[in-house]
């Protein structure tokens, strides 16, 4: 089985003298000038764009090819990021506009009904509310049209330095304030530069070579100065006593691999990329290295003995442990209270939850299975919940961050991570496993996710037996599969099941069930009182209703 790899970035603070600081500032200014010119070149029509060789001759050859690779990579990342965010905004606006149009239709009908009843005060309030909604709809439609036109024209309006700082210039009147703004604007536009490496270069990067230092757990960096700056600062800049608080094992492995490669050509080197970034405290160095295996254990945990199914939700991670035959053993909930938190707090909360999830997986010696889902798909799934509380929860939802941290931790700790098709996991979980095992909808979906890794078919029950509040028993049969494919059938089944679920509480072909209260991830709760459980860990189940004679 192929070993998964992931590029991780580790940071350290540089301790520089005045000359070294000035050299890095000049390097960053020259590098960013090339970056701005190259971006402007890419915004021209295809026929007018210069290729790399023509562009470098026009700029007077300030850099080597490898340094210019960092410029190209930085611009490519910015453009891809902007285009992805634009597509996400278009999807979000489309969903919002459709929901608002439905709300407007309901409001219009209500206005007409109230006007017919002869309630002028209430009709006036509804008309004001309707007008406000119409203004909001018009504003969203204008944003949508502008983004669509920008996408069709293939424009990428990126502001280097930030739009917030650029707009601040319009409010300044005094010469002193303008001069201060110009300094901050220059610093914001020339505060970083990137040097990319390759596995076949000396020490993983020919322009910035990281090698062991005489001091223990420390490194020295040899930075090659561009030709235009060598008359002032010399050929190289030597920065010593570099120490990394995090990622020591990964960086030590990469440096050792590059060091051995100098003597043994059969060993493949490790590429290192360096990003120099300046802030209020000084210069920071961010080193990117590709990690290809666990750093703490030598054996990978695979799916031989079972898996951990994970359903990622805006406020928690629903986790179910399964054996090799797809049977649930226990379930847990890792809470994500992200609302009313800033970015740093959210990152810490997500990191703690993912760490506890991976601790649980390592304790059980089982692989992890999640949905192969992007953020916009997950967001559209929860935008159907038309409720203010869900809207606030969704605003703080960091699905991409959760997914990225799970992938990173799985590689660091040697736990295999698998992705499965997310189609209809919630529907099948509700129909087959929610009431049978006393699960929530999300834990039932996590069970389906884990079973799907092993290829188990989730066939809907032949009949659904339900009982309403009056005690009336009703039986319904799902639509016939006939010649439909799996997902065509599930789509048809979903359209049949959704209104049925709202009208009656159904038991998925199960005659008796118990509802287990949701427990925190700090408490272990197994299902149905299976043998081997500690009695104090079993939560008493409360019967919702006794078995009806007709069942």
Task: Give an account of the 3D structure.
The protein has 16 helices and 16 strands. By secondary structure, the protein is an alpha+beta fold. The chain has a domain at 307-458: Ribonuclease H-like superfamily/Ribonuclease H (Nucleotidyltransferase, domain 5). A hairpin with a 3-residue loop joins strand 8 (307-312) and strand 9. Helix 1 crosses helix 3. InterPro entries: Cas12f1-like_TNB.
The CATH H-level superfamily of the domain at 307-458 is Ribonuclease H-like superfamily/Ribonuclease H
- Show unreliable segments: 508-551
N- to C-terminal distance: 49 Å
Q: DSSP helix count? A: 16
Backbone shape: globular
Helix content: 40-55%
Primary descriptors:
globular; IS607 family transposase OrfB; coiled coil; DNA-binding; 551 residues; single chain; 4-stranded antiparallel sheet; 46% helix; 16 helices; disordered C terminus; Nucleotidyltransferase, domain 5; alpha+beta
Brief overview, please?
With 551 residues, this protein is α+β, with helices and mostly antiparallel strands. The chain contains 16 helices and 16 strands. Helix 3 packs antiparallel against helix 4 (120-152).
How are the SSEs ordered, and which strands pair?
Elements: E1 6-13, H1 18-42, H2 52-58, H3 65-117, H4 120-152, H5 163-168, H6 175-189, E2 192-195, E3 208-212, E4 219-224, H7 230-233, E5 236-242, H8 248-261, E6 272-279, E7 282-291, E8 307-312, E9 316-322, E10 328-335, H9 343-364, E11 367-371, H10 375-383, H11 388-395, H12 399-413, E12 417-420, H13 425-432, H14 434-437, H15 441-453, E13 464-467, E14 473-476, H16 486-503, E15 505-507, E16 525-526
Parallel strand pairs: 8-11, 11-12
Antiparallel strand pairs: 1-7, 2-6, 3-4, 4-5, 6-7, 8-9, 9-10, 10-16, 13-14, 13-15
Organism: Oleiphilus messinensis
InterPro entries: Cas12f1-like_TNB
Keywords: Coiled coil, DNA-binding
């Amino acid at each position: 089985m192929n070993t998964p790899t992931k590029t991780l970035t580790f940071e350290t603070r540089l301790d520089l003298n005045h000359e070294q600081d000035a050299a890095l500032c000049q390097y960053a200014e020259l590098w960013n000038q090339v970056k701005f010119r190259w971006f402007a070149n890419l915004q021209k029509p295809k026929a007018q764009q210069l290729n790399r060789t023509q562009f470098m001759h026009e700029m007077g050859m300030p850099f080597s090819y490898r340094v210019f690779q960092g410029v190209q990579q930085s611009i490519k990342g910015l453009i891809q990021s902007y285009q992805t965010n634009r597509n996400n905004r278009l999807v979000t606006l489309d969903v919002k506009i459709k929901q608002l149009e439905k709300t407007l239709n309901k409001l219009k009908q209500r206005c007409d009904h109230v006007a017919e009843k002869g309630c002028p005060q209430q009709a006036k309030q509804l008309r004001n509310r309707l007008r406000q909604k119409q203004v909001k709809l018009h504003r969203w439609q204008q944003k949508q049209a502008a983004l669509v036109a920008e996408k069709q024209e293939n424009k990428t309006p990126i502001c280097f330095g930030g739009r917030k700082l650029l707009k601040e210039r319009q409010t300044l009147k005094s010469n002193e304030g303008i001069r201060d703004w110009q300094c901050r604007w220059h610093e914001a536009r020339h505060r970083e530069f990137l040097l990319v490496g390759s596995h076949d270069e000396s020490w993983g990067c020919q322009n910035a070579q990281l090698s062991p230092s005489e001091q223990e757990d420390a490194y020295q960096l040899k930075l090659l100065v561009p030709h235009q700056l060598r008359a002032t600062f010399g050929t190289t800049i030597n920065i010593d006593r570099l120490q990394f608080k995090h990622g020591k094992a990964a960086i030590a492995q990469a440096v050792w691999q590059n060091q051995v490669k100098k003597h043994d050509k059969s060993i493949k080197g490790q590429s290192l990329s360096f990003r120099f970034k300046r802030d209020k405290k000084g210069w920071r160095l961010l080193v990117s290295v590709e990690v290809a295996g666990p750093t703490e254990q030598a054996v990978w945990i695979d799916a031989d003995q079972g898996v951990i199914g994970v359903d990622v939700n805006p406020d928690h991670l629903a986790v179910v442990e399964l054996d090799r035959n797809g049977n649930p053993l226990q379930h847990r909930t890792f809470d994500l209270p992200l609302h009313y938190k800033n970015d740093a707090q959210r990152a810490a909360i997500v990191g703690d939850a993912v760490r506890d999830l991976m601790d649980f997986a390592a304790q059980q010696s089982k692989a992890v299975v999640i949905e192969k889902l992007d953020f916009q798909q997950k967001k559209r799934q929860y935008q159907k919940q038309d409720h203010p509380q869900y809207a606030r929860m969704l605003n703080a939802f960091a699905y991409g961050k959760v997914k990225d941290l799970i992938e990173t931790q799985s590689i660091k700790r040697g736990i295999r991570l698998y992705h499965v098709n997310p189609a209809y996991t919630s529907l099948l979980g509700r129909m087959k496993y929610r009431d049978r095992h006393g699960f929530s909808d999300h834990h039932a979906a996590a069970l389906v996710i884990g079973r799907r890794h092993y290829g188990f078919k989730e066939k809907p029950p032949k009949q659904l037996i339900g009982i309403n509040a009056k005690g009336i028993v009703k039986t319904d049969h799902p639509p016939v599969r006939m010649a439909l494919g799996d997902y065509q059938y599930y789509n048809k089944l979903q359209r049949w099941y959704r209104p049925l679920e709202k009208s009656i509480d159904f038991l998925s072909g199960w005659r008796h069930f118990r509802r287990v209260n949701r427990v925190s991830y700090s408490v272990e709760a197994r299902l149905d009182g299976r043998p081997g459980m500690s009695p104090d860990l079993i939560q008493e189940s409360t019967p919702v209703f006794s078995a009806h004679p007709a069942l």
